[in-house]
Amino acid sequence: MTGHVATPGGTPPVTLGLDTFGDVTSDAQGRPSTHGETIRNLVEEGVLADQVGIDHFAIGEHHTDWMPLSAADVVLGAIASRTSRIRLGSAVTVISSDDPVRVYQRYATLDAVSKGRAEVILGRGSSTESFPLFGYDLSDYDRLFEEKVDLFAELLKEEPVSWAGTTRPRLDGLSVHPHSESGAIPTWIGVGGSPQSVIRTARYGFSLMLAIIGGPTARFAPFTELFRRALEEFGQPERPVGVHSPGHVAATDEQAVAEFWPHYERTMRTVAAQRGFRAPAFEHFMHDVGPDGALYVGSPRTVATKIAETLRVLGAGRFDLKYGMHGMPHGTLMNAVELFGTEVAPLVREMTAA
Fold it and tell me: Whole-prediction pTM value?
């Protein structure tokens, strides 16, 4: 159930990952890719991530025209068939609108295909398209998440399951297959700012992934302390803490901003119109790009320095960069993946080992 295993006599090494929501890409001339092209491009990005030494590659579940990655485990299976070492998972699986039994079976199958490299990050999701799509009522938002996480925790024991709730049929001593290679699929909970979610994560003995998408990252430091206190109170062993934040890497700070900002602005305007908040101006964007903000946009050294400081301030051992925005060229993303693996990751490891 852990995100990584402690090495004897020391602290686990920092691990670094990339995750994506599968935003629709474009070609070099700015023409939008089809959904099929976008998904095939994503497979190539995952394969490259393995080749350049990145530790984790994860795909977030979405169900929209501009983020068509509704079956992350299928894409991860394709990546698994062409890679050998990188860990593959979700970021996040919207467990509230899915069946925990099927989620477990899909990721246990991915674990088999990848020879034990699967993991899963469970979450509520930052969007709600899946609720009406699968016939769930948003008024049951909290109950769905609580019950389904509870069932998933039982499934991870890989023993006959007896469980009853109000959101799906009960299970009476049923076995669920296949079993994972390691005996338990490494499982995290993605938390966006709720102390209750931090405590729930500790209660189940999952690892904690802090989803930080805006504002100062330091405000999440109390969550790490809360998590560790809660683990102790629940009698759970130590579990890893990770950080997920958006960003983009290019050769220089100026190039990274120029490549990322137009697509970030368009994406945020779309989301703002849907959810009724004001889209951020360029000045706000640049503040979040700065040393204390939640956007990791810049040259390899700029991004690495900021990641290392974030890990130190938050007491975290894993950082996942959410790369890509709607309409970014596939070639630009491939370059960012390569820079993250060949330049950012070694710098972070050097900085955090000191």
Answer: 0.94
